[in-house]
């Protein structure tokens, strides 16, 4: 072998050596003791594949006893054999598998074989390709079964998609093995295609371990169930396996003293995962008395624990459960009733500033969910809490550092009742408005892509700014809106196409501001002269002045107007932008924009001039398009109201423009037949204006 100069000579020498080893067992011992194994190993990388093949056959022969296995496994680089498993040459694949099979029969070598990078992955792949190579598939399966004697190998198999060994040992293994397998289930990240099968097979055994196992078994089982339940499609499967009753028992009634882990924390996490999967709360029983997840028993216990529990992670999980329960009308009513009690609501608000940011975020999310039902109560609690409400508007040092906490905090302020003067004055007195405007300006310049939460943060900031416009009757807030020219701010923001919510909120702000314009717009004030000289000078000045020096009056509000002082939409050039929003796909944006436009057709304004101005920017065509595109009752009513105003005060041109719309009559007839009372009445009026219905006079009696 040392002197061979051709492939043929090497091959023949190896065949001779193979035949010597076959004659007597003692010959193998002599070959191994003569130091030939290292020389043979070199031929595994020989260029001729026949040489490589016969070398592996020879090494397999030398490894047929325990001593031989140790010598071969110690000398050989197993990764070379692993590479040969993927050879296109079938004899190479088969001999490499047979060599592995021989070595795997030694329990002491199982761990070494399994630890070779890519080894178990290759063997698993070959096992599942039976149709391609049945012999190889069978041998790979035998090798894998031998390797199962090492728990670490079982874990590696599961990581590479072969779950059966782990599941079989979990279900049928001895207690130590079960604990080890459960621990692996909690550590391994499985693909989605494996998670459901794993849950079906493993969950009964894991639930049993939680219920009746020792501390180590319970800890491992909790960890595995937490992992399994985090995959939402497994939710219903786990419910059917009876997990909810066990977790509720762990959470509320079962106490194991001196247990090193917090089983309530683990149980609450699993329960929260399952509820977040979207199961029907009213159908899931939690105890032998037939109570369900939506029962008062669950709600009261969860909120009681939230008041008295200290671990942050447990509090987070309890809030997650409550958020899921708010989706049930029955449970939601109970939660609102209980949280309205002073202590529960104060506890939730105090959690906002908890050092654990995740807990603060969870608490705010629950408060946002509850705010439509008890907003004024929450405002009262918030304003009585130290450091609130100003801490909810936090300013990140950089826009790239905007966190979820920044976003949800701002949105909580935006969602609380806008008409609540107490909160609006508290924000005003803490000088929050300049901070909000500064942050909005920065985000507009940099864009919302600077941070994952920048868009949500912007929505919260704009919503908080809009809330001031709901209480403009308070002179301090009116002064604030004028000082910072809110009309111009919202006019600019309404073109922010990156967020529908920002556009909707901006339109709401403009509507609120515009509704005050007619009262704020006043005729120009002329001071009375104090003496004859002043009277003479004023007359002389008036005689010499030109028409250009006259103060122009707003044609709609009949007084002196500006976007800053009277919030005039015409002066702010907001009308065209609002009309552009009527073509938006989002119905909420369309309705908000139309509501703002409706303030220009109010009875208190000069409707004739307003319609003339709106006709000049083709407003009626935009409104007719809204009627064609959207069927929502509220939006249809507003559109019909605008159309009626144009028909009544817009003259022949408006009547002509509206009459020429071919789809409008059919829409009106449909609304007349199927709409609610108000919509039907409006449709009837428009049909009469268009001479599509008889107009009964007072003298005609039915």
TrEMBL record:
Keywords from the UniProt entry: Repeat
InterPro entries cross-referenced by the UniProt entry: ARM-like, ARM-type_fold, Armadillo, U-box_domain_protein
Keyword ATP-binding: no
Pfam families per the UniProt record, alphabetical: Arm
Name of the protein in its database record: Putative U-box domain-containing protein 42
């Amino acid at each position: 072998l040392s002197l061979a100069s051709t492939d043929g000579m090497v091959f023949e020498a190896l065949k001779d050596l193979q035949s010597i080893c076959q004659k007597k067992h003692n010959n193998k011992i002599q070959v191994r003791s003569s130091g030939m194994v290292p020389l043979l190993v070199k031929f595994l990388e020989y260029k001729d594949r026949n040489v490589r093949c016969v070398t592996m056959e020879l090494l397999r022969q030398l490894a047929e006893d325990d001593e031989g296995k140790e010598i071969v496994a110690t000398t050989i680089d197993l990764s070379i054999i692993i590479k040969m498993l993927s050879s296109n040459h079938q004899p190479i694949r088969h001999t490499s598998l047979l060599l592995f099979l021989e070595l795997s029969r030694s329990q002491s070598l199982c761990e070494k074989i399994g630890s070779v990078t890519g080894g178990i992955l290759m063997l698993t792949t070959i096992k599942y390709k039976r149709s391609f190579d049945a012999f190889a598939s069978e041998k790979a399966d035998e090798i894998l079964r031998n390797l199962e004697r090492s728990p670490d190998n079982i874990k590696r198999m599961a990581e590479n998609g072969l779950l059966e060994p782990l599941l079989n040992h979990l279900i049928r293994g001895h207690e130590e093995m079960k604990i080890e397998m459960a621990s692996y289930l909690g550590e391994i990240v499985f693909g989605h295609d494996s998670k459901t099968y794993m849950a079906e097979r493993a969950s009964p055994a894991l639930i049993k371990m939680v219920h009746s196992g020792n501390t180590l078994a319970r800890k491992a089982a909790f960890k595995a169930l937490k992992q399994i339940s985090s995959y939402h499609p497994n939710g219903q499967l786990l419910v059917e396996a009876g997990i909810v009753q066990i977790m509720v028992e762990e959470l509320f009634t079962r106490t194991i003293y001196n247990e090193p882990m917090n089983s309530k924390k683990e149980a609450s996490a699993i329960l929260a995962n399952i509820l977040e999967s979207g199961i029907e709360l009213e159908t899931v029983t939690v105890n032998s008395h037939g109570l369900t997840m939506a029962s008062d028993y669950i709600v009261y216990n969860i909120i009681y624990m939230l008041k008295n529990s200290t671990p942050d992670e447990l509090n987070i999980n309890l809030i997650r459960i409550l958020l899921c329960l708010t989706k049930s009308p029955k449970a939601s009513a109970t939660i609102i009733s209980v949280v309205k009690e002073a202590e529960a609501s104060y506890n939730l608000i105090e959690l906002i500033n908890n050092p654990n940011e995740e807990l603060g975020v969870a608490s705010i999310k629950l408060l946002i969910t509850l705010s439509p039902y008890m907003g004024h109560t929450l405002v009262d609690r918030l304003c009585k809490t130290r450091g609130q409400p100003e801490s909810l508007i936090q300013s990140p040092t950089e826009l790239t550092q905007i966190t979820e906490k920044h976003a949800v905090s701002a949105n909580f302020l935006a969602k609380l009742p806008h008409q609540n003067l107490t909160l609006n004055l508290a924000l005003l007195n803490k000088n929050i408005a300049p901070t909000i405007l500064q942050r909005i300006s920065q985000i507009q310049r940099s864009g919302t892509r600077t941070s994952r939460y920048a868009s949500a943060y912007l929505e919260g900031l704009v919503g908080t700014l809009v809330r001031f416009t709901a209480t403009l009757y308070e002179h301090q807030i009116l002064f604030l809106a004028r000082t910072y020219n809110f009309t111009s701010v919202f006019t600019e923001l309404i073109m922010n196409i990156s967020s529908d919510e920002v556009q909707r909120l901006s339109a709401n702000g403009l509507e609120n501001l515009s509704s005050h314009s007619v009262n704020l717009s006043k005729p120009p004030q002329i001071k009375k002269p104090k003496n004859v000289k002043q009277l003479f000078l004023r007359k002389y000045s008036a005689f010499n002045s030109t028409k250009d020096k006259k103060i122009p009056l707003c044609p709609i509000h009949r007084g002196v107007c500006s976007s800053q002082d009277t919030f005039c939409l015409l002066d702010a050039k907001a009308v065209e932008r609002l009309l552009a929003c009527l073509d938006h796909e989002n119905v909420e944006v369309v309705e908000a924009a139309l509501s703002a436009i409706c303030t220009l057709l109010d009875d208190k304004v000069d409707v004739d001039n307003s319609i003339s101005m709106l006709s000049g920017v083709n407003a009626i065509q935009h409104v007719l398009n809204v009627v064609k595109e959207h069927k929502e009752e509220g939006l249809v009513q507003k559109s019909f109201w605008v159309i009626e105003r144009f028909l009544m005060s817009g003259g022949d041109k408006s009547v002509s423009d509206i009459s020429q719309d071919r789809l409008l009559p059919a829409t009106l007839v449909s609304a007349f037949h199927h709409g609610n009372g108000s919509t039907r009445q409006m449709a009837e009026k428009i049909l009469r204006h268009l001479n599509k219905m008889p107009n009964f006079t007072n003298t005609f009696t039915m």
